[in-house]
Amino acid sequence: MNTYIPEMCEITGVRHEAPLVKTFFIDWKGKYEPGQFVELSVLGYGEAPISISSRYGEPFALTVREVGSVTGALHRMSEGDYVGIRGPFGKGWPMKAVRGRNLVIVAGGIGLAPLRPVIKEILANRDDYGKVILLYGARSPWDILYRREMGEWLPHINVEVTVDRSDVDAETMDWGAWKGKVGLVTRLLEETEVPLEDAYAFVCGPPIMMRFVARGLIEKGFTSHRIYVSLERNMKCGMGMCGHCQLSGRYVCLDGPVFRLEEALRFIEKPEETAGVMG
Amino acid sequence: MRHQPTAFALPKGRVEEFFQRISSWGTVYGSTVCEGKSGFFPVSRWHEVRLDGPRPFIPPKKLFFPPEIPLFSFRRGRAGYEIEDRLEEMHEKRVLLGLRLCDARGIARMDLYLMGDVKDPYYVKMREDTLLIGVTCTTAHSSCFCTLFGGLDRGDVNYDLWLTDVGDAYLVEVGSERGSALLEGADFLEEANGAHITEAERRRRYVEDEVRRNLPAYDHDAIFRAFSECYNDALWEWYAERCLACGKCNFICPTCHCFDVYDEVEFNLKEGRRMRKWDACHLYMFAAVHGHNFRGERSARVKYRVYDKFYYPRERYGVFTCVGCGRCFETCSARIDLREILKEVMM
After folding, report:
1. Best mutation site among B118, B233, B299 for testing chain A: the one with the most A CBs within 10 Å?
2. What DSSP element (H or E) covers B30?
3. Which residues of A touch B279 (CB under 8 A)?
4. Are the C-beta atoms of residues B146 and B101 closer than 8 Å to each other?
5. What is the pLDDT of residues B91-136, one digit of tens each?
6. What percentage of chain B has pLDDT greater than the value 70?
7. Is the ipTM of this complex over 0.85?
8. Cβ–Cβ < 8 Å for A163, A108
């Protein structure tokens, strides 16, 4: 068995989510858990690690932002085209540990994609979990992912959304159609009352956001062993061999991408996301 | 499952017969000098091989882990893509003749990375198809410091046969079943006697003593402790100012195994190959993702490579992945000496 060869799968649907972000539904039959990722191939362009944004049992989906050559080529593809999938790889969110407990989910931008399976899992078994709150920060009202789905989430979990900037006109101070909150997700976290008793936190977003959110959670009273972060690295092989995702002797593709913050803080090479949390 | 070592003596007058026998396994890559480069090259006679002296400059890593290989080919067909596995192309049977102990230890370390829990099929294939015939160094380079990692003791390495020059003969020690099978019924071998074994031991000690002069004998736990304490030391900044971030030390290192995966496309835009190519953690883009470079500072990369030899692998596998061959600072244009870094860390 050559583990480098992807399984070629057909794209069964494409959904536009936001500018530069699309969700691709792919006919892949692998078994996976929330928070795991796959290596996505567009033959001729290469391979890129993409986190899975569907819950196992539903149509397999990847929400991808167009940033490079592989994701750019993927964005030009449509229904009926073929992509390669290898995986799933890595360790995902500790869903067993949060069973029966409260959960705070903090996501920034495309970081909501690997957390969508967590939300879907909770919605499917709502009685198994306590209070769940999602704090989500997007760049602008147009960049909010899964907008159409969020209506279905609302009756079951508490969702708070903030945008870094709305379409504000400096002279008239006209906020456009956006009536929600404006500001960073860290401020949203400060302002929002979140469950602290018997609660876990899952965080995913850009490095700088995770760093300040982790600090904010600790200031609120979370202990670092109840905070989980999903780290982004350049996973080229997914099997702990190519060395690109190595972080302080761990392979993010094997030992992560989800790490307990307490463990990440003990790394000698600090992941930028957590550097400065304690000091 | 180490084969019970048996030893023979190979008289120097009959080495070509020995060569004939080992070349029945496959192409012999001998330690030699070719076009001014000292490394492992295909040879057709014993006398093209240089078994005296210290280790060659270029390690045999590329025989198991080539600088660039195609992983598979693809072609756009009527229904999606056709994929052709290129693993079977790596089927050359080879004999590595003149493997020095630092490189044998390097292979043992590469095995941890590429033949451990997860197996790299290309590496495994090339490893299995290659017979390892080692030789004890007769002298050392001034940059050698293998004694820090076990010296010329073969307890922690894998080999099929091991040769030691004992004057008018080579002592041939068998290290595996297939090594033993290869020598079956060889009339050019004599039974090794006690004098051969004592002489081999004496010569080994002689070289080890020479190597020991190049670096103080630090305790392994002390090295690990020292590294755990000097992560934020200013010395990394100091070395970063000199480092050219060229990645030469990565490429010459017998245990650096990082690689990049990318696609190559034919001009017809219908066919292509997925390639695997060496990568180096000293290069700027190594740890970059879109919008963020996790080791954008040169000092972070200098430090990372040294920690990936002396700290991280010891945490993960319980060993250092430096083997003390000294090639990284022999090749370094900025003359950054790993031994100086070690001494500074241990200060």
Report:
1. B118
2. strand B27-34
3. 242-244
4. yes
5. 889 999 999 999 999 999 999 999 988 899 999 999 999 999 999 9
6. 98
7. yes
8. no
Contact yes or no for B174/B146 (Cβ under 8 A): no
Residue type, A127: D
Nearest to B292 among A44, A207, A242 (CB): A207
Q: What is the DSSP letter of B163?
A: E
User: Please, which residues bridge with residue A51 across strands?
Assistant: A37
| Dist. CA B27–CA A159, nearest whole Å | 66
Q: Does residue B286 belong to the interface with chain A, where contact is any CB pair within 8 Å? A: yes
B95, β-bridge pairs:
B28, B131
| Distant-in-sequence contacts of B228-232, Cβ < 8 A, 24+ apart | B228/A268, B228/B311, B230/B345, B231/A268, B231/A269, B231/B303, B231/B307
**Using one digit for the tens of pLDDT, what is the confidence trace for B250-300?**
999 999 999 999 999 999 988 999 999 999 999 998 988 888 888 888 888
> What confidence tens digit (pLDDT) does each residue in B247-264 have?
999 999 999 999 999 999
Q: In B, which residues are within 8 Å of A43 by CB distance?
A: 74, 76, 81, 263, 272, 274
Measured between CA atoms, the residue of chain A closest to residue B257 is A242
Calpha distance B76→B263 (Å, rounded): 14
Partner A contacted by B284 (CB < 8 A): no
- Per DSSP, B3 falls in state P
pTM for this structure?
Answer: 0.90
Closest C-alpha among A118, A120, A110 to residue A23: A110
- Amino acid letter, residue B234: A
pLDDT digits (tens, 9 = 90+) for A49-83: 999 999 999 999 999 999 999 999 999 999 999 99
Tell me the residue type at B85: D
Question: In a 3-state reduction of DSSP, which class is residue B36?
Answer: coil
Strands (E), B79-230: 81-85, 94-99, 130-135, 161-165, 169-174, 190-191
Residue B281 backbone zone (phi > 0: left; psi -120 to 50: alpha; other: beta): alpha
For residue A9, the one-letter residue type is: C
Short-list B51, B55, B57, B54, CA closest to B164: B51
Give the separation between CA A223 and CA A195, rounded to whole angstroms.
Answer: 13
Vertex B291: Cα angle to B247 and A215 (nearest 5): 105
Give how far A4 is from chain B: nearest CA, Å: 7
β-strands A246-247, A158-163 pairing: unpaired
